[in-house]
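Tutorial handout. Part one gives the primary structure; part two gives the three-dimensional structure as tokens.
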Amino acid sequence: MDVLTLLKEDHRNVGALLDEANGCEPDDKRIDSLALQIEKALTVHAAIEEKCFYPALHERAEQTDDTVDVFEAYTEHDLIKMLIALLKSGRQPDEQFKAELQVLSENVKHHVKEEESTIFSLARHVLDREELEELGKEMAAAKERLLRGTRERSVRKAPSAKKRTNSTKRTTSTKSANGKKQRS
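Part two.
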């Protein structure tokens, strides 16, 4: 699958999740699960674009406007990451959470529209068919690794929430006269 097809699929999948979440009332039980799915999908998507796709375009961009477009895409990702951080706050979904989700949705849809026109056009111009295919394979593999990693982390047992007391023994290290670390 070529890179543009892979990215379009991601865009459609995230768009469907965002639309479903936006259709929920603030107290809907599904909103937590949807927010988690959206966060994971957007985080992985942004990571593979920033690691593989955008650098390839930046390297090949011949005109200043093209370079500016690539940097704009990075900047839009930064904004989306800030909005994702709000979703990960751990607070209960309420009207404010729903509003933040709406703003995230609007920003993602704006980014997708620009990317599928401006950035994809640049990709078709500076990368040949074989390069688009190869980049698609590389990004699909990176995506699978990242998704596998997030699944493995979510399965791991969360650490105990017990509070530490002042009586908890702390280990510190100091350097002895000979320069070697010693534990106390």
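Part three, for discussion. The beta strands are 173-175, 181-183. The radius of gyration is 22 Å.
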